[in-house]
Amino acid sequence: MTITAITMPKWGLTMTEGKVVAWLKPQGAAFASGEELLEIETSKITNVVEAESPGTLLRIVAPEGSTLPIGALLAVVAPETTPAAEIDRFVAGFVVPEPAADASAETDAPAPRDIEAAGQRLRYLELGSGGGVPVLLLHGFGADLNSWMFTQPALSDGRRTIALDLPGHGGSAKDVGRGDVDALTDAVEAALRVLDIDRVHLVGHSMGGAVAAALAARQPDRVATLTLIASAGLGPEINATFIDGFVRAARRRDVEAVLRLLVHDPALVSRAMIEDVLRYKRLDGVAAALETIAGAWFPDGRQTYDLVTALPMPVQLIWGRDDRIVPVAHAEALAARLPVHILADAGHLPHMEKSGAVNALIRRFIEG
Amino acid sequence: MTQKTIRQALHEALVHEMRRDPRVVVIGEDVSGGAGTAGGRDAAGGVLGVTKGLIGEFGEARVIDTPITESAIMGAAAGAAVTGLRPVAELMFSDFLGVCFDQIFNQAAKFRYMFGGKARTPLVIRTMIGAGRSAAAQHSQSPYHIFTSVPGLKVVVPSNAYDAKGLLIQAIRDDDPVVFCEHKLMYDLKCEVPDEAYTIPFGEANVVRDGDDVTIVALSRMVHYASEAAETLAKEGIECELIDPRTTSPLDEDTILDSVTRTGRLVIVDEATPRCSVATDIAALVADKAFGALKAPIRRVTAPHTPVPFAPGLEKLYIPDPDRIAAAVRAVHEYRR
Fold first, then answer.
1. Cα–Cα distance, B147 to A159 (Å, whole number)
2. Which domains, and CATH codes, for chain B?
3. In a 3-state reduction of DSSP, which class is residue A317?
4. What H or E segment, with its residue span, contains residue A136?
5. How far is CA A277 from the centre of its chain?
6. What is the predicted pLDDT for the residue at A33?
7. Residues A114-123 pLDDT 10s
8. Which pLDDT belongs to residue B36?
């Protein structure tokens, strides 16, 4: 009989505690893998915790409304027949890991690092270690490595995972050169060299998907698998209102309006998320970088890059049914040739909106 | 990203802009200091060290120590601005504005208008505000409301290091005179500040905290006291929305009005004296444009209409504090519920 704990997850670099908003399964309920168990709110984001494997929610420890540190015990999962006394002992004996409160602990926590690649400063976050083929995560237009906050930890067992800030984005240098697919792919290629990664699983979202595909076409032998999430490069349509709006938005209100286009549930767009985008957009050089990239990739509100080339490695597509940026039809058109997973109740950010399902799809795919 | 104090954030902003644009100069009393003394050049670096080190990199032509003559500092800076430089002039204590008010109020603020739009006056006046150090009535005031009342001046009242850096860079790049008010008790306050240069637009408030029960608008150091009060009140079940306008001219009216439209209850916290103040101005704005949404009288938590006392005990009573803010919020929250 195994007793396991559901603990407060760590989403993103700055999270230290989270609030239990609601339990989506009652105490005593059985659940299947991928089912939603509870909703957690952080200072940045509200998201659901999904079950990684089937089980029974035998004891809820953290009441709704409670705010607890990372790693705190939220609930106990155990077979229905487990005696209550045994659960009591498990709860009593559970030790919450010390939160990274002092400075020395903070330096142990994973932090983004900078590299010089092809004469450019690029920022990345590395998690995990081991002999597995590493995973490289490439974000979309205007985003950064934090967009993988729910994805990267779930892929980091037994392998290195690297989330990169593309040129012009996040903490990377804001000079993007021509800013087109070749320029961004050059930068990613150089980063892999510096990080000494020979073979890699690529996961790309939106514009980052097209960069991942371009890299796979250049170096098919080095790319083990390719997962494209709501990817650019698969058809001419793109939501020009979003692209133009994102490039132009300078005030909270405008940023909020364009970010809402990204998601199925507008509640995902928190004040902190808007503030993060504003802080990025206020940096010197960002406006020019975004304009250059948008001009190279999406002139006249159409996509220019088309990657219909047949690729030799396994390729899968993951899309949100309600994507309002890149139409789901781009994925449906390829369903006869490739595994295509279309997720309900998700917009352009399925890896954030349906993180459990997307993580499971990626894990299954890369573990072959 | 690293934690930086407001002092470091302001220093970084000056260094970024002086490197970026050779027209940016710093002028004031003891902005480097120490010439002809045992301590040597740059012994002062500004009364609180914000400009320390600038003279080494940028030289005497761009880091200009002046005699103790505020009228000359502001006059020279306004003239330099209108003829092509971008001066950052230091008015050590904002209380000294009386000495140089003509240069600010009747010259710099009016040039663009009087010269038919042909003149630009890219002048920044950095100045210290605030009570709390027993510096007495002539070195402790917060007269940003006087600057705010002058058409042609922009007025910045940052409350944290992130905002201070972005707003000072914005102020230096702005083509109009900007009065930049630094609270003398906040220079060591830290938060995360990017190493890169960035700008925060004027007239966009920061919503420090979300809440649906009562709106609090607080300025400069009072943002932190209001934040403390909001924490206490949250434990009592009162959720406050805390708004930091960041600039009093231009003022982000929309963010304040939107919030009050939702909460119906407003408390304004301002360290300045209450007559013809920013607090009073915001109260009038809301009474005028959101009267229908109000469920309770607007409450202002401010200093009394007196000079700032020297006696520490009295000075403590003079400055609004978290308890007074919380009491005001409770009063408007309870009003005709």
1. 59
2. 2-193 (3.40.50.970), 206-334 (3.40.50.920)
3. strand
4. strand A132-138
5. 16
6. 81
7. 999 988 999 9
8. 85
Q: Is the minimum CB–CB distance between A337 and chain B shorter than 8 Å?
A: no
Q: What would the pLDDT profile of A205-218 be if each residue is shown by its tens digit?
A: 999 999 999 999 99
pLDDT tens for each residue of B17-45: 999 999 999 999 999 988 888 888 898 89
Q: Using CB atoms, which residue from A251, A252, A284 is nearest to B198?
A: A284
Size of interface A-B (CB pairs under 8 A): 26
- H helix runs in B103-221, sequence order: 111-114, 144-148, 161-173
Chain B, residues 146-165, CB within 8 A of chain A, namely 162
The helix/strand/coil state of B20 is: helix
ipTM tops 0.85: yes
Interface test with A, best of B192, B198, B210 (most A CBs within 10 A): B198
CB-CB neighbors (< 8 A) of A282 in chain B: 166, 198-200
Provide mean pLDDT across the span B330-337.
94
Q: Which residues of B touch A283 (CB under 8 A)?
A: 194, 196-198
**What is the average per-residue pLDDT within B307-318?**
97
Digit-coded pLDDT (tens) for A42-65: 877 888 888 878 899 999 999 999
Which of B2, B196, B247 has the most A C-beta neighbours within 10 Å, making it the best mutation to test the interface with A? B196
First to last CA, chain B: 45
Report pLDDT digits (tens) over B181-223: 999 999 999 999 999 999 999 999 999 999 999 999 999 999 9
Closest-approach residue (CA) in chain B for A270: B210
Domains and CATH numbers, chain A: 4-97 (2.40.50.100), 111-366 (3.40.50.1820)
Q: Which residues of B touch A251 (CB under 8 A)?
A: 201, 204
* Dihedral (Cα; A26, A30, A33, A39), 10-degree rounding: 10
Contacts of A271 in chain B (CB under 8 A): 207, 210
Residues of B with catalytic roles: 139
Q: Give the angle B132-B133-B139 at the CA atoms, nearest 5°.
A: 95
* Closest approach of A318 to chain B, Cα-based (Å): 33
Q: Which two tokens stand for residue A254?
A: 């405008």
**Chain A residues touching B198 at Cβ < 8 A:** 279, 282-284
- pLDDT computed for residue A103 by the predictor: 44
| Residues A345-363 as b or e (16 or more Cβ within 10 Å = b) | ebbbbbbbbbbbbbbbbbe
Q: Which of A252, A271, A286 would best serve as a mutation to test chain B binding (most B beta carbons within 10 A)? A: A252
CB spacing of B201 vs A284 below 8 angstroms: no
Q: Report yes or no: B39 and B32 within 8 Å, Cβ to Cβ.
A: no
CA distance A362 to A225: 10
